[in-house]
Amino acid sequence: DHCDTADVYFNIGITYKNQGDIDSSLEYYGKTLNIQLKIYRESHPNIADTYHNIGQAYKSKRDYPVALENYKQALAIRQKTLGAEDRETANTHAIIGYIKRKVKDDGAACKNYEDCLKILNKASGMDDPKSADCYYHIGNIYQERQEYKNAIENYELALKVFTKTVGEDNQNILSVYFNLGLCYYHLEGYSSAISNYEHALKIARQTVGDQHLNTAFFYLYLGYTNFKINDCDAALSNYYKALQITRQVCGDEHINTAEIYFNIGVAYYTKGEYERAIIGYEKALKTRSKSSGENNAEVSFIYFNLGIAHEYLGNFKEALSNYTASAKIKTKVFGENHPSTLRTYYNIANVYEKVKDN
Question: CA 205 to CA 214: how far, in whole Å?
């Protein structure tokens, strides 16, 4: 039971961790802790380091409750030995915030992130990337609560710090811009959403290139937002850019490809170009049916939209065929009394009335 023995066990634990052998690392951290608790006071910095590494190992195993208990032990010791305003104390608050998010304790997580921010902002002002991380995670918590204005406030602070400390063309900043876009979209601030998505797209093109799924993703969200402001031509332009990348990366039979074809169909339908809408819907249907199977809610919606487009064109036989296919799936998936199922049966009846009148 000597401190040198504890140090050797600790370093063996680190070696096993670096090799990806988490169980062996935990075995040696446990041996380290047993010796340290005998020879040191309970509040020794080395004990905090061991608890920290044990927490890290359980975090790797996704055993978040056990990880949390060990990080809390490390925090308590660091607050006593290093002080409540030490950087290591701040970092431990941030890690605990992350773990509390994993165990769905968002309120407590927010408090830990805020405690980390108090320490870092006092020490470094607005010049620490870790502060930006905390603002970003707090923003995520508010966004998930649908408190979009509070989320935007924190994302803007994260953006300010990231821009100052790591520069504009950075993956972290890309994520902030995208989440700002989402928040403005939900608040119906579509021009601000588009501006932020465009910033995210610009960074994606510079960092991962034009033929990357992330780039396609941002084109798609720009298309969604263009569509919301009735700019169908801009929406289609962005959908087709997203489609070209997605087909190249994922292939023609991927769910993402189906979704883009469906949105292309919706945009053409909205423009009154029903033949083109049908082409988009049929491609979406072919891909979605292969990837998800026929008895799928998304497939039922595509059949329904095909029915509407054919009905507008006076193709009543095709409209009935698609409405019937939609109703059959919706009855299985939602039940016969679901509003979406009833709406489909209403459309079938309506088409039969049109056929009878003709």
Answer: 9
Look up residue 160 and give its two tokens: 């300010």
Q: Whats the size of the chain, residue-wise?
A: 358
Q: Running along the chain, 358 residues long, what does each successive block of 10 average in pLDDT?
A: 87 95 95 92 89 96 96 95 92 95 92 94 82 95 96 96 84 93 97 97 93 94 97 98 95 91 97 97 93 87 96 94 96 94 95 82
The label of the residue with tokens 């902002």 reads 121
Residue 3 CB: number of other CB atoms within 10 A? 13
Q: Which residues of 289-320 are buried (b: 16+ CB within 10 A; e: fewer)?
A: bebeeeebebbbbbbbbbbbbbbeeebbebbb
Q: What is the DSSP string of 237-266?
A: HHHHHHHHHHHHHH-TTSHHHHHHHHHHHH
Neighbour count for residue 211 (Cβ, 10 Å): 12
